[in-house]
Amino acid sequence: MNNSNYFNPEFETMSREQIEALQLERLKETVRHCMNNEFYQKKFKEAGITPDDIQSLDDIRKIPFTTKGDLRDTYPFGMSCVPLSKCVRLHSSSGTTGNPTVILHTQRDLDEWANQVARNLWMVGLRPDDVFQNSSGYGMFTGGLGFQYGAEKLGMLTVPAAAGNSLRQIKFIKDFGTTAIHAIPSYVTRLYEVMQEQGVDPRRDTKLKVLAIGAEPHSEEQRKRIEDMMGVKAYNSFGMSEMCGPGVGFECKEQNGLHFWEDYYIVEIVDPETLEPVPDGEIGELVLTTLRREAMPLLRYRTRDLTRVLGRTCPCGRQHVRLDRMRGRSDDMIVLRGVNIFPIQIEKILMQFPEVGTNYLITLTTDDNNDNMTVEVELNEGTDDFVKLQKLEKEIKRQLKDEILLTPIVKLVSRGSLPVSEGKAVRVVDKRKVYQ
Question: How far apart are alpha carbons 28 and 33 in whole angstroms?
């Protein structure tokens, strides 16, 4: 067994100079490979550049951005850089707002993806003698197969439980001696509620020691709640199907930001309006360039996710860039009465109150030509103390106003009264379009 603290010591322990030298080498290779594709040939011609113009990492700014719209416009296989006969799998989005985005993979792509996920899981202390339960959807959603192959690559016994069926999940956790679970944050909360109903104490009745959570934005406050409930550390995971899926970024045991693997990606943070780079520490839009993708390399892909650079050194010994948790998406921003609001700002305030649970819903309406926001949040326990509830509601409203600069309507509702989804939690319902 590898007893090192690193799954891939050669790449995880690189200095900044080594990382950047490798990135430049792989960027040049990737750009040349992209010239096998008509879309990128046209993009480079329109920008008046050739692969020979990329001689430094700073030269990446000469390359035009790629967007989700480009993937939809070239649906289904117009972004491929290899013959379809060399591809062994595809994943796609739901396509509810038009053509889905399709991502192709060669066998080498899948092997590299599994390696990234295994690297993440090893980093938080998982080893071949652990039991990994994957409570994520399989199929076109990348979270299932991505973690499945990564956990197998590491050598763990894997339990492909898939999403939902909480009673079965709990039985598997107990019977199989599950030590690690991957799930979206809102589902971990649901799992704990069912454990409570069944009289199961995760600290006493299970062998759990690690949670991998991701796929939906969540605040630090929600993460701490999950850790308190389950009695184990919960590590933030970042991935997106356009890059491969899970495995792009992950927290180490320090929990001081997401390490993004710079031997696989070039990370940029830009102003979403001007598209110019922002200084380290300032929030901007994450832009990623793939460096080891065979089937569908993507150059300067605009993720729409908002984050910031926290640093490039870490007590864990890795010098791969550390990014803050995703603050939301630039295209998920709520604009209410001219104020820009992100749902995670509201969650951060709600999670500070122990009296309320983790399930909440933001509803936007237009009443008498005025746009309004209603925040419904479930209570942890039922109470008939009207004065106490009124005081709690008033304090939540006050703190929300301080955070978002508007006064929402706050409704405290009974536990279990808000909808629960087995997929990503629905946090915002915008009914204003009905009136427009």
Answer: 9
